[in-house]
Each structure stands twice: as structure tokens, then as C-alpha cells.
Design a protein that fits this description.
Elements (H helix, E strand, L loop, with lengths): L4 H7 L2 H14 L2 E7 L21 E7 L8 E5 L21 H7 L9 E5 H7 L2 E7 L5 E9 L12 H5 L5 E5 L11 E7 L2 H4 L7 E9 L14 E5 L4 E2 L2 E5 L6 E9 L6 E9 L4 E4 L1
Antiparallel strand pairs: 1-2, 1-5, 2-3, 3-4, 6-14, 7-13, 7-15, 8-12, 8-14, 9-10, 9-11, 9-13
Length: about 290
């Protein structure tokens, strides 16, 4: 499955990715980025004409910024250990890999290990799917809360029934306390995961899902999106046909937040759960 171009390009903004890498490094979190492209005419895991395979995920190992001496570059790896990019800055591009370029990047194009370099511009042009995840250290706190869209609570995104229908979805209260020590910030992620249709034996495809986090002043179930003290905060964006969607909780301010998950269409029933991974304990429960 591919992302729409705007969503993909937003996820791949250079400055944003650099900031994410640096923020994760400071917290001891490992940021992992996987890139892939779907080209129907090529076929699954077949060369699309430049060494990149369709429907095959590549790991982004690191980003290289030489302060303008070279183009912005990224190092990727094919887990197969071969089948590499054949364009600019590929291992076979002897013109690009001068001695100076090797010194600036610390990259050796003669290694045959499945790693290769692309310009960042080429990577954004060639790929159409970015999978970004975090590997949290044992010191982080995990919590899990179950929920379900059933009956009237399977209300959809409000495209049918408007605000009243949308607010019939399950609602959850996220309470973020003051940090336990001065200078510490809340860092982590919030993940919504719908039931796995492979194991539930539901004879259907996964639903398109999303959630929005609203800041609130009273911690009560929301009756209106326009009530005093309600502020639209962070969101997963457009509804996506995926088993799990997430949003970044990094630097979320202490306070109370209402989370509303929804499927795109009303009447789409299934169980789901929320998971938080954060740098200090927060409280999440169903209203």
C-alpha cells in the first residue's frame, strides 16, 4: 500500500527527519525508517528499472549532510544484501565517489553488503511509502487500554451524521502529569491498533482508521467540538487503511486530553487498543 504523495513527502521532510533522529538520540530511542515503492507493472520484488525493487522495504541507515559540499544524501540497506540502486551516488557511480566524497561521508562504495547511497532528492522521488517507527529503551513506560467500535459507537468519522455521530465514538482520557524532574519533557508515542483480521477470522479487509487528541479543561466526555477549553491538538491525519496508526507525543504539555478514535465509515465494528510508550508515566483510560 502506498501513501498519497503529500503525506509521503511530509514524512520525508529533511529538517523534520533530522530533528526526529536527534530527539530520539537524546532520549536513547532508536528511530527506524523503512522505504518502499509500489509499481504494479514491475511486479512484486522486481526491479523497477533502476535497481530498486517494487514492494520491497529498504532500511534508512543514516542521513548525510556535508554543509552543501555534496547533495543531501541518505544511506539505505537492502536486507537481502544485494540488488542495489544504480543511479547517482550508487556504488558503481565512480564519478560521484571521489576521494573527497568518501572522506566527507565516511562511506566506502566498494563494500558489497547491501548498503548503498542515494541523494535525498532521488529517494523522495523514487519511493512512495515511508514506515517510521521507534524502538524504546527499557526505561520507558508502556500502557495499554482496550476498546471497541460496536453498535452506536461504530459511528465513523462524521461524514455521515456530522459532529453528533462522530462524538458517539469511544472516547479516552489521557492525563499527562508534570514531569518528575526539572527540565524533563514527555517524549513518546501513542498507537491505535485495530484487531488483526488474520487471527480474528473476520472475513474482511482492515478498516481505514485515525484518531485525534483534543486538549480539554475538565477531562469529561466531549459533547461538542466547540466547547470552551477544547483545543484540537495532534492527530494521525487522514484515515488510513492500516492495522495501526500513531502520533508523536514528544513535548506534549502536562494536562488533560480527550482521544477520539474512529473508522472512516459508520457501522464498521471491531475491537482495538491504544498503547502508549513514554519517558515518564501518563494515565490513559476509557471514559
Amino acid at each position: 500500500m502506498h501513501q498519497d504523495r503529500g503525506t509521503f513527502e511530509k514524512a520525508m521532510e529533511w529538517e523534520q527527519l533530522l530533528q526526529q533522529y536527534e530527539a530520539c538520540r537524546r532520549q536513547g530511542v532508536r528511530l527506524m525508517v523503512g522505504l518502499s515503492v509500489h509499481q504494479e507493472r514491475a511486479g512484486t520484488e522486481k526491479d523497477i528499472g533502476n535497481g530498486i525493487l517494487s514492494d520491497h522495504e529498504y532500511s534508512m541507515i543514516r542521513l548525510i549532510d556535508t554543509d552543501g559540499q555534496l547533495p543531501l544524501l541518505c544511506v539505505l540497506r537492502n536486507p537481502w544484501g544485494d540488488k542495489e540502486w544504480r543511479g547517482a551516488y550508487s556504488d558503481g557511480d565512480t564519478r560521484a565517489w571521489s576521494r573527497r566524497a568518501r572522506e566527507l561521508t565516511g562511506y566506502d562504495p566498494t563494500d558489497r553488503d547491501g548498503e548503498f547511497v542515494m541523494t535525498y532528492e532521488d529517494a523522495v522521488s523514487v519511493f512512495d511509502m515511508a514506515e517510521i517507527s521507534m524502538l524504546f529503551p527499557p526505561s520507558f513506560f508502556r500502557s495499554k487500554v482496550d476498546g471497541a467500535w460496536r453498535g452506536s459507537s461504530a459511528a465513523g468519522c462524521g461524514n455521515i451524521g456530522g459532529q453528533t455521530a462522530y462524538l458517539s465514538n469511544p472516547q479516552f482520557l489521557l492525563e499527562v502529569p508534570e514531569p518528575p524532574r526539572l527540565g524533563m519533557s514527555c517524549f513518546g508515542t501513542l498507537v491505535l491498533t485495530q484487531e488483526d483480521v488474520r487471527y480474528s477470522q473476520a472475513h474482511r479487509k482492515e478498516y481505514s482508521i485515525a484518531f485525534t487528541v483534543y486538549r480539554t479543561s475538565d477531562g469529561q466526555r466531549m459533547r461538542s467540538l466547540h466547547s470552551p477549553g477544547v483545543d484540537t491538538g495532534i492527530s494521525t491525519g487522514s484515515h488510513t487503511n492500516r492495522r495501526a496508526v500513531s502520533c508523536d507525543l514528544s513535548n506534549i504539555e502536562p494536562g488533560q486530553y480527550i482521544i477520539i478514535p474512529s473508522t472512516f465509515r459508520p457501522g464498521e465494528e471491531c475491537s482495538f487498543y491504544f498503547t502508549t510508550w513514554v519517558s515518564y508515566p501518563v494515565h490513559l483510560h476509557k471514559l
